[in-house]
Amino acid sequence: MELPASTPDQLLAQARQYGYAEGDQVWLRPVLNYPARPVGQVKDSPEASLRYFAERFARYQAKVEELLRSIDESDNKGSFLMKALHLKEQAGSYDALGDFAGLHQQLSAAEEAIQATVRHNRAKNLATKHSIIEQAEALRDTLDWQQGSDQLKELRQAWIKTGPVEKELTDELEKRFQTAADAFYARKKDYLAVKKAMNNRTLDQYKDLIRRSEALQNSTDFEDTSRKLKVLQQAWKEIDGTLPRKQATDLWASFRAAHNHFFERLKKHIESQRQQPGGNGAAGGNNGSGEENLRRKRALVAEAQELLKRPMPEAVTRAKELQAAWKQVGPVRGEESDQVWEHFIMACDKVFEMSALDYYMRKRQAAADPATPAPAPAAEAALRVQALREFIRLDEQERQVLADNLDKLSPSSASDAFRTLLQSKIRAFDRKIRTKNDLIAMYQTAAAR
Fold this sequence. Notes:
By secondary structure, the protein is mostly helical. The chain contains 13 helices and three strands; from the N terminus they run αβββαααααααααααα. Strands 1-2-3 form a three-stranded antiparallel beta sheet. α9 runs antiparallel to α10. It is rod-shaped, with a radius of gyration of 43 Å. Pfam families: DUF349 (PF03993). Residues 270-293 are annotated as: Disordered. This is DUF349 domain-containing protein. InterPro entries: DUF349 (IPR007139).
């Protein structure tokens, strides 16, 4: 902004109001607690020199007026603070003749206004950063790793966009935010490691069943091998875990190939037996009477249903032993076969689900601040219910993926094998979800007592 041009007489009058010429020097009168001081030399004439230094003040005044207008129009007033301080400092040393006291007062008022704005903005920034930290710390309980990762990225962007706070608080706030983010990513890393280990365990279980099936596919002990392969088929259905579709399809194909090979041989064997005098083609055995088998299986069910009362590592080991014993018991006919099996597998599933839940809770406690006290029993039960509900949500997501894949299968017989596998996996997830809901009900009932 340019100030209105002053006439030579006006400039001279202004100069004489604030300074004077004495000898060969031009002097500024005492101002701002500064004594009178020379600002330059007299050249040509005292009047011309006085006008020259009045013009220099006008240029300095124009800079101040331009700065004050910029401050007034800007949303980022703090960016002008250093320039205001610099011009204010010049008021005590600038070689010119004019109302330095008035400009100094204006610059002091602008400085105070800027400082007040900076304090207000930093307080607002502090509140924003506290809110971001609280949101990041709240992720310590989430099990939705993808949503949590996305939310942390958004929080980091919000953190970067938020203006500064007081310098003495900067490091502390950054440390708190980073600690919350690191805690989430550490838990995510642990979860993915556990999931990978579980997938590897699932893969190993499938490969073991394939290896055992292939070892039996050329057996000539048709009766005993038939029984063993049926046990392996049941074990395949009971494997708890999912693998990528192509990998699962390839494994299933290898498993079925070994079984098909044996049963084709069995079929030919039965046909050859029938062609012999007195042949009846029998290939199966009978491990005791149906009543005896039912009694033994009911005993296994009763023991399995009591396993949750034992220490968890001991319960898991015993559940596996009971499952192995179940496979050695002969068949039970009629509706009771399905009922007794349902009761048995649900009891074992509760043990395995409880073991997985215990492992998760231990990992969570280990990741918590050591100074944080252990939760009270009621709070612990609530945390377990919350974790189970989140696990159910993840199970339902995986089940939906399987269901979607099932819907996409063509109706051709070539897809029958994989369709059977998918249906088996969907039933397994239904059982897992039902088991977790039973555990939730157990915790809620215990809390209500």
